[in-house]
Design the sequence.
């Protein structure tokens, strides 16, 4: 499938799949979307001093890198990706320069260079495990404070936005754990609610009117 590098509205890059008319990050700003959806609406709400995060769709590593830049706490980060981005594509991502984070270039590179399916200590306070895994094979239980649900949209991969998948997400979260996603589709909200999540609509990132945040209110 053809893949192209695009520059989004905030000057940061993304990978575009023209055959699907889909991309890894919002055309209205890759970095803006990460901050709005995952950092401001997710990470900043977690009170624990040590935060365990599951990312659904590790992709370009942007969400992981910005989490590292913005967190003042110890982070245990697990990123799931069935089809990893190639090293050649990562070299074309301009996140470090747009974020003015050149002093952390080695950290961004290390996040992509470390092996898959092993836990690595990126820094003393940030661990990363990249899992080459299909989302339907996730079987964690009561393990995470926060989930970044950043899969391709339901228009192109509806099987990733079902009650079955969100039941796995619910089980993977600790009680009072948070799931955030850029999606605001009614079918997605209903699937979350059906498995027990308390769901709220929030103002969306640039280019989107709304997004969703879901809370695990009890064990099931």
Sequence:
């Amino acid at each position: 499938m053809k893949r192209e590098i695009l520059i989004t509205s905030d000057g940061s890059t993304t990978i575009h799949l023209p055959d699907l008319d889909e991309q890894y990050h919002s055309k209205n700003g890759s970095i803006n979307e990460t901050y709005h959806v995952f950092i401001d609406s997710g990470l900043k709400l977690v009170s624990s001093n040590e935060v365990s995060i599951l990312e659904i769709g590790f992709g370009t590593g942007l969400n992981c890198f910005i989490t590292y830049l913005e967190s003042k706490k110890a982070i245990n980060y697990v990123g799931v990706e069935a089809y990893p981005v190639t090293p050649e594509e990562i070299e074309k991502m301009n996140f470090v320069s747009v974020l003015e984070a050149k002093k952390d270039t080695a950290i961004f590179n290390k996040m992509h260079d470390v092996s898959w399916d092993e836990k690595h200590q990126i820094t003393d306070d940030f661990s990363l495990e990249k899992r080459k895994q299909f989302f339907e094979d996730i079987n964690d239980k009561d393990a995470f404070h926060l989930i970044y649900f950043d899969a391709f949209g339901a228009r192109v991969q509806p099987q990733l936005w079902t009650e079955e998948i969100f039941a796995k997400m619910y089980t993977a979260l600790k009680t009072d754990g948070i799931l955030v996603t850029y999606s605001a589709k009614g079918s997605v909200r209903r699937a979350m609610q059906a498995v027990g999540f308390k769901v709220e609509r929030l103002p969306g990132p640039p280019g989107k009117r709304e997004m969703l945040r879901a809370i695990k209110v009890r064990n099931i």
In short: The chain is about 25% helix and 30% strand.
